[in-house]
Amino acid sequence: MSRVFVxxxxxxxxxxxxxxxxRPFQNAEEMDEYMxxxxxxxxxxxxxxxxxxxxxxxxxxxxxxxxxxxHGNKFLILGNHDRGRSxxxxxxxxxxEVSEYPIVFQSFFILSHEPMYMNKHMPYVNIHGHIHSQKxxxxxxxxxxxxxxxxxxxxxxxIKSSLVANxxx
Length: 169
Hints:
Elements (H helix, E strand, L loop, with lengths): L3 E4 L7 H6 L7 H15 L5 E4 L8 H10 L3 E5 L9 H6 L4 E3 L3 E3 L3 E3 L13 E4 L12 E3 L10 E2 H13 L1
Parallel strand pairs: 1-2, 2-3, 3-4, 6-7, 7-8
Antiparallel strand pairs: 1-9, 5-6
């Protein structure tokens, strides 16, 4: 049975993100290989992964080579660093689906790159990236940035469990 995952902000090929976010790698190549390995330890070929943006700083050929190595059906929601390239560019780089805008998933989860304003009366949860190792407080936000999840996509089962645990506290 296939599962659904989310993840954000890999920044494949981005040497400077190692310093910006204190990532534990010597260089971008080491970081890339570790992130590919981590992805494939949890995602099977049949699974679906929503990538919430800022995927790759490489050219199309190198980006496609990475996308091809990653398990699952991949859906990209464009992040601020992805927007310089067209939707067609990302589809040609190997993503199964691409959205320029946030999407609503299972009528309850708003998937976006940047956190969206959510007041306490909204029944939704915003699953986002963009802010890397920072976290927003409250039950309406879930940060899927790689730094918080050991560079592994997070399953929706895990997200739902964490939201229920937060609600009970």
